[in-house]
Amino acid sequence: MSIADKGSGTPLILIPGLNGRWEYMQETIDALAQSFRVVTFALAGERASGLPFDAALGLDNYVSQVSRALDEARIERAVICGVSFGGVVAARFAAAHPDRTAALVLTSAPGPIWHLKPKHRLYARAPWIFAPLFVVEATRRLRAELVVVFPHRGARVRFGLKQLGAFLQAPISLGRMGQRARVISTLDLADDCRRISVPTLVVTGEAGLDHVVPVEGSAEYARLIAGARRAVIERTGHQGVLTRPDVYAQLVRDFVETLRNAAA
Hints:
The chain has 11 helices and 7 strands. By secondary structure, the chain is α/β, with parallel strands linked by helices. Strands 1-3-2-4-5-6-7 form a 7-stranded mixed sheet, with helices on both faces. β2 (10-15), α1 and β3 form a beta-alpha-beta unit. It starts with a strand and ends with a helix.
């Protein structure tokens, strides 16, 4: 299995979103690595991961991958941090492996009970046929958020160029994205959430700015997981991890530092 390992300090496993690639979060990794040892990877099924995807295992492909990443990095316990789709993986991992989860951070994760809209089911079943529609819709939704985050056009262009650079380095597969969307569209994680016993932070953007995953759905994790805390990245929506990486890293840092102080 191929992993990326950066920084030192408290170990933190960073699970990427639906596109399956960590390269799009490079600035976030850099920000987190100022305080943590960040270990991340491409999701199973991606050529860069070195691991196949077994359709029979579904979400557990990625849960097993987290365990394997810990083993590869020789880490016994870590902060498990999932972004968007990765948050669903992180929640399932924390429920199944509390002994290896020091704390849990769920970031703009699809709700514990999440279903694709009818048109999105079509996208997921035949992504290459409906690719133009998907790209147009995704661009429109993300632009609505980016206009608020980056009021000046030049800043939006610079952000777009960075993401283009990541795409050239790590092209995404609409087929594998559709496969992952289908995996979680039939899940009910309510029981998993009730089994989670580790300290948990639920991070979202502002309700009116996340045009990808409804904030009220993400907030359900804070209701179902005992003792979970909530934090909001202001002036952003679903892309807050990418658009405000320093703010995000500070939220995670403060959360872990609070736990450390309480333990002391």
